[in-house]
């Protein structure tokens, strides 16, 4: 067991040493490659600088030759045009200034005479002459080209909107226009036309002779007391008003509707029987009770009472409306105390 553990430890140690050695070799390789790249880059820069130095040396030699020729021309010509001399001197000043700038950027390996003035070079060939008088100032140079326009500035933020102005005063009322030409009278309409009921419009019939809505009936009592059987229809009616297609059946005391729509139905009965403890009457559409009125009878002397009820109901074609009494009692059929009727409001659709 110990040998096996020792061999395992030894193999782990060897693996660790190999790993460290591999990492070391990789790091050394990366360092060498990086150093090689830096060396190549520096060599390229040095070659570039040497080429620039050689070009500058050639330009300096050319300028020296030009300066020597210029000095010989000044000696031979003598009293030439002064304006031409001043121009030449100005050109030479500019040339010397450019040469000095170029020489100041040349490498240190150049000849020593490049860093000396041109006077030392001339003294090797002849004696130095006296310093000449200062020349007149040169002419003003031509103006340079106009500069390019700069980039456009950023647009500023939009300011807050102003407050809303006040409402102006109303202008004067215009003059009334001329009256139009009176139109021709149209034909009289006997069919259904649109009429207004409050805020709505509906269709209804208008009579050609009277400006009244059609489909209405009003029945009144015949003016005498009548004794009605239990749950019997009241038939003792007299037609006071009827317009349209609505029909009253005197035998059954019922009103038959011939036009579908919403109707206002009403009825009132005059109670006059002291033998019962209560009196009542109901209004029916076909065989369905839709309204009811009820009153108590105090005694035989305090037996008179009237009850009215009314409402809006949908009535279809051939429906009948009638008034019935639930008790066997005596009713006063005076025309202003007992009445019954219905009138059309608007169609169902």
Automatic annotation (TrEMBL):
| Transmembrane parts of this sequence | 12-36
Q: What UniProt keywords are attached to this protein's entry?
A: Cytokine, Membrane, Transmembrane, Transmembrane helix
> Cellular component GO terms, alphabetically?
extracellular space; membrane
Q: Which PROSITE patterns match?
A: THD_2
Compositionally biased spans, kind Basic and acidic residues: 71-112
Q: Is the keyword Transmembrane helix in the record?
A: yes
Q: Where is this region: Disordered?
A: 68-112, 126-171
Q: Where in the cell is it found?
A: Membrane
Q: Which one Pfam family would you cite for this protein? A: Collagen
Instruction: List the GO biological process terms.
Output: immune response
- Gene3D superfamilies registered for this protein in UniProt: 2.60.120.40
The THD domain is annotated at: 215-345
Which GO terms label this protein's molecular function in UniProt?
A: cytokine activity; tumor necrosis factor receptor binding
Q: Look up keyword NADP and say if it applies.
A: no
**SMART domains, from UniProt?**
TNF
Q: Which family does it belong to?
A: Belongs to the tumor necrosis factor family.
Record-given protein name: THD domain-containing protein
Which species? Answer: Desmophyllum pertusum
């Amino acid at each position: 067991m110990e040998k096996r553990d020792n061999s395992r430890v030894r193999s782990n140690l060897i693996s660790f040493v190999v790993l460290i050695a591999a990492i070391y070799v990789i790091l050394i390789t990366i360092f060498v490659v990086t150093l090689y790249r830096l060396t190549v880059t520096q060599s390229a820069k040095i070659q570039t600088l040497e080429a620039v130095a050689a070009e500058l040396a050639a330009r300096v030699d050319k300028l020296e030759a030009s300066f020597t020729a210029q000095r010989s021309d000044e000696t031979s010509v003598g009293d030439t045009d002064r304006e031409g001399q001043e121009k030449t001197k100005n050109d030479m000043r500019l040339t010397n200034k450019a040469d000095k700038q170029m020489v100041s950027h040349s490498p240190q390996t150049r000849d020593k005479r490049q860093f000396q003035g041109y006077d030392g070079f001339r003294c090797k060939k002849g004696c130095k002459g006296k310093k000449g008088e200062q020349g007149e100032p040169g002419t003003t140079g031509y103006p340079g080209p106009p500069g390019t326009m700069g980039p456009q500035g950023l647009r500023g933020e939009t300011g807050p909107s102003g407050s809303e102005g006040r409402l102006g005063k109303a202008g004067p009322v215009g003059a009334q226009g001329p009256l139009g030409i009176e139109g021709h009278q149209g034909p009289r309409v006997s069919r259904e036309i649109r009429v207004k009921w409050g805020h709505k419009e509906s269709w209804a019939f208008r009579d050609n002779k009277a400006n009244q809505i059609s489909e209405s009936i009003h029945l009144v009592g015949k003016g005498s007391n009548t004794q009605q059987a239990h749950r019997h229809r009241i038939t003792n009616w007299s037609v006071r008003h009827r317009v349209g297609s609505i029909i009253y059946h005197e035998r059954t005391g019922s009103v038959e509707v011939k036009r579908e729509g919403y109707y206002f139905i009403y009825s009132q009965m005059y109670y006059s029987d002291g033998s019962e403890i209560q009196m009542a009457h109901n209004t029916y559409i076909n065989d369905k009770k839709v309204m009811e009125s009820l009153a108590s009878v105090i005694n035989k002397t305090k037996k008179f009472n009237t009850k009215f009820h009314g409402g809006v109901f949908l009535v279809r074609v051939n429906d009948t409306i009638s008034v019935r009494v639930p008790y066997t009692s005596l009713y006063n059929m005076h025309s202003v105390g007992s009445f019954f009727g219905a009138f059309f409001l608007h169609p169902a659709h």
